[in-house]
Design goal:
single chain, 193 residues, alpha+beta, 4 helices, 25% helix, elongated
Length: 193
């Protein structure tokens, strides 16, 4: 007789457990994604959004004086505009290879934008840029001065180009406002304000 111990057959090892977060099923990933997207949607719904940002310029005459002294120009500003006209941006624009341009932008009572653009010795290219490459469609007299009307219907842009300098500067009034508001604005411009 032999005394070799008999061994019982080995029990199968238990299956390894899957660790959470590692190798989950497609169903789990979809559920996680839905929860994440829903959380983001709730967060976005709670964040307040502003539809318009008021950007009223406080010291338009002061900026105009500073630019006038710097450039030795008599820049124009509107005089006597009603309170519904709000100055939104006023500055001297300088780009490489282009004439410096005095820019004064306003929101008209209609909510549309109107701007004044002035430079000394404006080229044909400068006028084309300011009018948005609009086509001349006639002229109008504003305060005894003739202005040529330009329109670019693709851009919904109308422009008035003063035929003679204003305070020694070439002058364009342009924007998306209607002709009445453009002409009213042009009629209030005074140089050296």
């Amino acid at each position: 007789m032999s005394t070799t111990p008999q061994t019982a057959p080995a029990a199968p090892a238990p299956a390894p457990q899957r660790r959470r977060g590692m190798g989950g099923s497609a169903r789990s990933m979809i559920i996680s994604m839905v929860v994440l997207v829903a959380g983001c949607a709730v967060w976005l719904a709670m964040v307040p959004r502003v539809s318009t940002v008021p950007r009223e310029v406080q010291d338009v005459p002061g900026i105009a004086r500073e630019v006038g002294a710097q450039q030795k120009w008599q820049v124009a500003l509107p005089q006597g505009l009603p309170a519904q006209w709000v100055a939104t941006n006023v500055r001297l624009l300088k780009y490489d290879g282009k004439a410096p341009t005095w820019h004064a932008g306003y929101q008209a009572p209609s909510g549309k934008f109107v701007s004044l653009e002035q430079t000394k010795g404006g080229s044909d290219g400068w006028f084309k840029d300011q009018t948005g490459f609009g086509q001349a469609i006639g002229s109008v007299s504003v305060g005894g001065t003739t202005w040529t009307k330009f329109e670019n219907t693709d851009k919904d842009q109308r422009s008035l180009v003063r035929t003679g300098p204003l305070g020694g500067l070439d002058t364009v009034v342009t924007g998306k406002a209607g002709w009445d508001e453009l002409q009213h604005f042009a009629g209030t411009l005074k140089p050296g304000a």
